[in-house]
């Protein structure tokens, strides 16, 4: 038991220093890279099922952004919030086949990209929580959801916390 615990601690320390660099922390099945201003997602081990990548600097997000996520199909919660995402491709989250919660809070994504992204994920995913708070008036307007009436509304849920301007809260 003690040996197992020790092994687990050493294993985690090795993983933190070798795989994620000093910017990310792994605890259990959760990987967190918070307020590190990273411009790309580092190697995320295959056993991780929650990826919190918040307060970084992604700019443009495509499928390729997640190339270092070893097993995207295992991840049920993905939080690329406050990552300065401006452009995002409609199939960006295609490899996240088990996704249940997606948190895009505090990204000023261009409205056209978000419109097609939402359309796409409403058809291809079955999210229970989609967070789109503090995205700015240019991102969230009547145009943003204009394609969604073509899909079953029940596949998309929006959570509005109405909280003040806290950059990120989990
Ligand atoms: C984050 O990186 C950008 C450029 O990549 C830089 O302009 C900015 O100052 C950085 N922010 C912090 C808090 O380090
Ligand atoms: C977003 O896309 C536009 C058009 O392709 C490009 O000019 C701009 O630099 C991109 N912005 C970021 C932050 O990647
Ligand atoms: C979603 O994106 C994928 C990959 O680009 C595409 O094959 C699919 O047709 C798109 N679905 C919708 C509803 O836009």
Span between termini: 32 Å
What are the segments in which pLDDT stays under 50 over at least 5 consecutive residues? 5-18, 152-157, 159-170
Which percent bin holds the helix content? Answer: 10-25%
The oligomeric state is single chain
Structural class: alpha/beta
CATH topology: Leucine-rich repeat, LRR (right-handed beta-alpha superhelix)
Run of helices and strands: HEEEEEEEHEE
Highlighted features:
globular, two-stranded parallel sheet, 7-stranded mixed β-sheet, alpha/beta, 170 residues, disordered C terminus, Leucine-rich repeat, LRR (right-handed beta-alpha superhelix), binds 2-acetamido-2-deoxy-beta-D-glucopyranose
Explain how this protein is built.
This protein is of the alpha/beta class. The protein has a single domain (2-159), classed as Ribonuclease Inhibitor (Leucine-rich repeat, LRR (right-handed beta-alpha superhelix), Alpha-Beta Horseshoe), CATH 3.80.10. 18% of the residues lie in helices and 16% in strands. The chain has helices at 2-18, 111-124, and strands at residues 25-27, 30-34, 50-54, 60-61, 77-79, 87-88, 101-103, 129-131, 158-159. The chain has a seven-stranded mixed beta sheet with strand order 1-2-3-5-7-8-9. It has a two-stranded parallel ribbon with strand order 4-6. Strand 7, helix 2 (111-124) and strand 8 form a beta-alpha-beta unit. The longest helix has 17 residues, at 2-18. The protein is globular, with a radius of gyration of 17 Å. The protein binds 2-acetamido-2-deoxy-beta-D-glucopyranose (3 copies). Residues 59-60, 86-87 line the site of one 2-acetamido-2-deoxy-beta-D-glucopyranose (NAG). Residues 90-91, 94, 119-120, 123-124 line the site of one 2-acetamido-2-deoxy-beta-D-glucopyranose.
